[in-house]
Amino acid sequence: MALPTKTDEWVVKSASSTNFNLHLSKSVPIQSLGPNDVLLEIKAISLNYRDLAIARGTYPLPTTFPLIPTSDASALILATGAAITTLAPGTPVLILPAPLHTTGPLTSATHAAPGDGHHPGLLRRHAVLPASWVARYPAHLSYVEAATIGAAGLTAWNALFGAGLPGVAGGAGPRGIRAGDVVLTQGTGAVALFAAGFAVRAGARVIGTTSSAGKTRWLRALGVAEVLNYREDGRWGETARGLTAGGEGVDLVVDVGGAGTLGQSLRAIRYDGTVAVTGFLSGGEDGPGPSLMEVLPRAANVRGILAGSRAQYEEMVGKMEEWEFRPVVDERVFGFGEVEEAYEYLWAQKHVGKVVIEVAK
Ligand SMILES: NC(=O)c1ccc[n+]([C@@H]2O[C@H](COP(=O)([O-])OP(=O)(O)OC[C@H]3O[C@@H](n4cnc5c(N)ncnc54)[C@H](OP(=O)(O)O)[C@@H]3O)[C@@H](O)[C@H]2O)c1
């Protein structure tokens, strides 16, 4: 079969505070295949809050326009460059959310992602990418499911298992969560549901929050023990702490809200507990958030998370296969011609879990 030479791609022309400024460019030439590249037919793309923030001009890191947005996709390899021996055409893969970060700590040189404002994203029918940017995904997942596990799944994995909890003084070093720990997650978005699902499978007790009584069932279905409504209970962090043995507090909060939630997250944890800061969903309207000095009274550990390495991704894939873990995909899956609707849907927070665009739909 002849390989495609042209493709269609969505472009954000510039940041706008009133819309997403998305434009479909048709029949764009596909870049030629280098010896270390793969030609991909993109099958499904999942959206992240970052994609909205970049288009709305609220993303906290510098961005250059115009850009092809989005960073999460599954794909089929159509062709491989002359130097590639480990991947073959016909192999399903996903594109790693932090493809240069292979193992160990993140560095300036390895901090990069497709669709981050500097590297072209994946909202297109085909892409030529370095072969080192793709990875296999759990075999039991569909293309739609696989497109969701990159950024959100790996961020949740890193928050839970990336050795963020302190070891016992004088004993073992930092550790990830384990059976019997108590974890608090926030809302029913993608990172929160991955975190809740993974933590339950690891034997932790999970306390979840949501603003919507109707979405509680999604948390319960994952095995979340208690659900608090963060809109009705503004002191949800203290309430969560009261639900733990002796009122000591939770071991780990996976914080997705940022400035608007960190104050309560710090109140939820036990002494020497950890807050993994993954997101900024509460936006800028909540001011700068609590003072850094608030970590002192709880002897708190606060850890920022930027996705994770390929090594962590491989660990996650291994466990997802062992657990036969399936991500939560919102019941509405969009087609390639419905990208603006998909952005609006995520913006309105009508979704549960991941919002996905299926290219062939
Ligand atoms: N650090 C990284 O590498 C990385 C990777 C992926 C994502 N992120 C960031 O992590 C955050 C979450 O991403 P996501 O993909 O899970 O987003 P998402 O799917 O858009 O999450 C939306 C949901 O979060 C909940 N929510 C919104 N505001 C909240 C608040 N103030 N307090 C508690 N819950 C709130 C709501 O759940 P209810 O409707 O149930 O209330 C909402 O439906 C975003 O800021 C994203 O940019 C970071």
Automatic annotation (TrEMBL):
Xref: SMART domains: PKS_ER
Highest taxon above the source species: Eukaryota
Domain Enoyl reductase (ER): 17-357
UniProt cross-references to InterPro entries, sorted A to Z: ADH-like_C (IPR013149), ADH-like_N (IPR013154), ER (IPR020843), GroES-like_sf (IPR011032), NAD(P)-bd_dom_sf (IPR036291), Zinc_ADH-like (IPR052711)
Gene3D superfamilies, per the entry: Medium-chain alcohol dehydrogenases, catalytic domain, NAD(P)-binding Rossmann-like Domain
GO MF term (any one): oxidoreductase activity
UniProt-recorded name of the protein: NAD(P)-binding protein
